[in-house]
Amino acid sequence: MSKYRLFLLRHGEGAWNKENRFCSWVDQKLSEDGVTEARDCGRLLKEQGYKFDLVFTSILSRSVHTAWLVLEAMGQEWVPVVKSWRLNERHYGALIGLNRAEMALRHGEEKVKLWRRSYNITPPAMDESHPYFPEIYNDRRYTTCDVPKENLPRAESLKEVLDRLLPYWDSTVVPEIRKGRTVLISAHGNSCRALLKHLEGISDEDIVSVTLPTGIPVLLELDENLKPVKPRQLLGDQAKIQVAIKKVEDQGKAKQST
Questions:
Q1: What is the dihedral of CA 34, 170, 92, 41, to 10 degrees?
Q2: Residue 129, C-beta contacts closer than 8 angstroms, at least 6 positions apart
Q3: Residue 68 above 70 pLDDT?
Q4: pLDDT attached to residue 104
Q5: Is 198 annotated as catalytic?
Q6: Across residues 222-235, what is the average pLDDT?
Q7: What CA–CA distance (Å, rounded) separates 94 from 252?
Q8: Taking a C-beta distance cutoff of 8 angstroms, is the pair 57, 83 a contact?
Q9: How far apart are CA 177 and CA 76, in angstroms?
Q10: For 79-113, what is each residue's pLDDT tens digit?
Q11: Which of 5, 22, 100, 158 is an S-S bond match for 95, by CB 3.0 to 4.6 Å?
């Protein structure tokens, strides 16, 4: 029997999602389509009668902005929003800024799929010569973290995302859920996938095939031990959701220049 409800949301489309580039910790804003996705998500949740007590986001703007737009569309702007770097997107290291399709053409689709979707493969680390290194590591937001800036990741596997996310989940999110509060986590594709892996017990092999499209809310109904009592539900028009999933899966496929 379901005792708790948890909602996960991958932020609306970002500018680099549209350009098919590895965005990761670069603080890209939502695209126009991403703004629309977030508002549509909020309207859908309002129509279905859901109400949130607390929202958690990363400290990246696209995650925070998505949460704001969802709450605005629901008429729930007053709901508290709590931010943590531990919900940030996976750090893609040296791959940040590169185009996925061009990478697939150069290195092969399977290699790019492993970099993007596998559980325990870490991409090459970002070093100080990387063009986006200063933008990330000189950003004031990273002086607010609960670890020294020099200890923040320079690249991560999905396993490492889960390793840095779980302490926050256990110490901060779980107690709120156990109080009976309905929580929305407005985060990123990989931080949401990592949490799904933990909650649903998805194997290291099967997590490769789990795809979350932007702006589609995921409902998890949990028992008293925070274990799902039924399969996750992606809310909305199911035909449109399948199209959106395929769009994400196709991002890592090679496209010949024309």
A1: -10
A2: none
A3: yes
A4: 81
A5: no
A6: 97
A7: 16
A8: yes
A9: 18
A10: 999 999 999 999 999 999 998 888 888 778 888 77
A11: 22
Annotated catalytic residue, options 13, 37, 65, 89: 89
Of the two residues 48 and 124, the one the predictor is more confident about is 48
Helix axes 158-168, 189-200, angle to 10 degrees: 70
Q: Which amino acid is at 183?
A: V
CB distance 192 to 78 below 8 Å = no
- Residue 68's CB is within 10 A of a number of other CB atoms, namely 16
Q: Is 135 annotated as catalytic?
A: no
Tell me: pLDDT of 210 over 70.
Answer: yes
> Scanning the structure block, which residue is given the tokens 């670890």?
147
Return the residue matching tokens 């490492």.
160
Report the chain's mean pLDDT, rounded to a whole number.
93
Task: Answer whether 0.85 is exceeded by the pTM.
Answer: yes
Instruction: Give me the percent of the chain exceeding a pLDDT of 90.
Output: 81
The residue with tokens 């902005």 is 65
With a CB cutoff of 8 Å and minimum separation 6, the contacts of 107 are: none
Q: Which phi and psi (to 5°) does residue 231 adopt?
A: -60, 150
What pLDDT score was predicted for residue 87? 98
